[in-house]
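To whoever picks this up:

The parser on our side crashed when reading a file containing two proteins. I've narrowed it down to the boundary between the first structure block and the second sequence. Both blocks are reproduced below exactly, byte for byte. First block:
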Amino acid sequence: MNPLNHVAIIMDGNGRWGLKNENSRNAGHKAGLKTVEKIIKESIKNNVKFLTLFAFSTENWKRPKKEISFLFNLLEDFLKNKIDDLNKQNIKLKIIGIKNFSTRLNKLLNISEKKTSKNTKIQINLALNYGSKSELVNAFKNLIKNNDKINEKNLSKHLQTKNIPDPDILIRTGDKKRLSNFLLWQLAYSEIFFEKKLWPDFNENDYNKIIKKFRSIKRNFGKI
């Protein structure tokens, strides 16, 4: 049985779900947040130590300003209302990506990280304004700047996922089969599961089916 330490998820389909069910993309983002809470709880039950959620990519800035504003307000409200509860549950929050948001949101993100920094039950890595290609370019720049030898070990030290094990599983909902510039280096040996359901429809049973399938896979890592 394969050990499961780190699950990464591309939470795709919120907007499409919202348009389909309530004629509003924003309604889909709000519904998707409920799924996030369910999957966090289920990850804890399965003793997953790291859960990385792709919440906002560097490419998502191309979306309408009203939708972006709604997303960030939703995130602010979530942190204000839930961070104390997450802290009580011994959950650690870490942001990967570039904190290039409003002063208010940046401050709230920093406070949330600091408040939960010593928690050990599970680490939630929230990918915000994250793009893997720029992450890799910056890592190579830092290698050169520090005059470090260029190898896999040293490069990993300069990634935003430093000290975080690579994902065992990548799940992408929304019936799209692409990585969308997410953890390109870190996913080299991850088992990838593409799920047809839109993110707000994804549930605990779907998640556990994927985990069960993962545990039964023979993982060779290049060997026979």
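<<boundary where parser fails>>
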Amino acid sequence: MDLISAEQIEQYRRDGYFILESVIPDVVVGALRQECMRYVDSFEREMEAEGRLTQGINHYKRRYFVANRSADNRIMTDFLHSELMADICRATLGEDAYLFNEQYVVKAADTDSKFAWHQDSGYVGHYHRAYLSCWCALDDMSIENGTIYVLPYGRDGRNNSDDISDHTVEAGTNDKVGYHGDDPGDPAIVPAGSIVVFSSRTFHRSGANRTDNYRRSYLAQYSPEPIMSKDGSKLWQRAEPILRNGVRCQPGYPPIAS
């Protein structure tokens, strides 16, 4: 918990986010980056075999969301269950935390690879307790390569920071859009190994990658309790214990049954 200050915890409660710079060890960043590209290569071969240029919010040779591949990947699993991530969960969610979702977000060099303003909760689509998003930079982030922008609470037009705004689907990209104001948000200009920590209620977006290199990030999301489907009959995503009563759970701890 020494890594996260009282001021950052207060910022999370007040603004919906805070930033931890250069906290992921270089060797871990390198390993996650290598796994990322292995999955991207596999994803591209799959889309080529199917003759598809678009698959949901994935766009061939432009941007990729490679989700939930950690179950058979020790590198990713060890990071998701690390003391670093457990500390972030304790500081934001409390004594209990569950791995809800994880995914690589990759942008190739493409001036149209932006991502629209949204709340992560908007992609669930029904009310649930706010969860935690940890956006881990695997490359040095800049405005030029399409870093994320965060819109603090109080600047998004909502009266209640716990509200989930209505989201519409943007034609052409299939992005969900929940904020239509003029505030550009605050860009995260951070080095590789940094983590932008924000609530699933926090609006964020990202710009286009205008460089010649990939812009890679790894998104790890944790919930304070299992998130269920709207009718309560099944898990919405995953619910792998990370913290139980404040104690970090090792990988392989029995998951919540779906």
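After patching the parser it read the second block fine. Residues 109 and 212 are 5 Å apart (CA to CA). The helical segments are 6-15, 26-50, 74-80, 83-92.
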